[in-house]
Amino acid sequence: MLKKFITALAITIGLSSVFATTGDKAEAAYYHTKAISVAKANLGVPYRWGGISPRGFDCSGLIKYSFGQAGKVLPRTAADMYYTKGYRVSSIQPGDLLFYAPNKASKPTHVAMYIGAGKMIMASSSKGVMITYTNNSYWNPKFIGAKRI
Q: Which residues neighbour 129 within 8 Å (Cβ) at sequence distance 6 or greater?
């Protein structure tokens, strides 16, 4: 009887850890998808230095706002996001944050969100909230890393 109880308990614990992991992945997929949708809904919003609302965004303001609407609180600046949130990834997925710096040795000064198909959404000082390719000639050389929240 004790052997059956221990076996049942082991199976229950094993299954609960599988479902907990699946739930975490489903939750992450939800807030990444939601953050992308929120950012896309703001395409064309003008750039505003320090902007954190649909009246105007800077790069980190757009990311903070989009993830906030999806239920995830992020720090205010690109550097704080880079140094304090998520984990580094080498193979990017939609919803991952892409960080850029003037040179490889400096702290990040720009953040964008990967949306798939080689594209990212960001707040550009010249065009406002826009979609561009990750391999564009301006941003690609400034890329310093990606993080998954």
A: 39, 42, 43, 44, 45, 47, 57, 62, 121, 122, 123
Q: pLDDT per residue over 105-131, tens digit each? A: 789 999 999 999 999 999 999 999 999
Q: Under a CB-based contact definition with an 8 Å cutoff, are residues 102 and 123 in contact? A: no
Please provide the CATH number assigned to the domain covering 2-148: 3.90.1720.10
**What single DSSP character describes residue 47?**
B
Distance of CA 56 to the CA centre of its chain: 20
CA torsion, points 104, 106, 109, 115, in degrees to nearest 10? 30
| The pLDDT value given to residue 24 | 58
Q: What is the pLDDT of residue 105?
A: 78
Per-residue tokens: 101? 């710096």
Which residues neighbour 128 within 8 Å (Cβ) at sequence distance 6 or greater?
44, 45, 46, 47, 56, 57
Q: Degrees (nearest 5) of the Cα angle 128, 99, 116?
A: 75
Residues of the chain with pLDDT under 70: 1-28
**What are the sequence ranges of the domains in the chain?**
2-148
Residue 40 identity (one-letter amino acid):
K
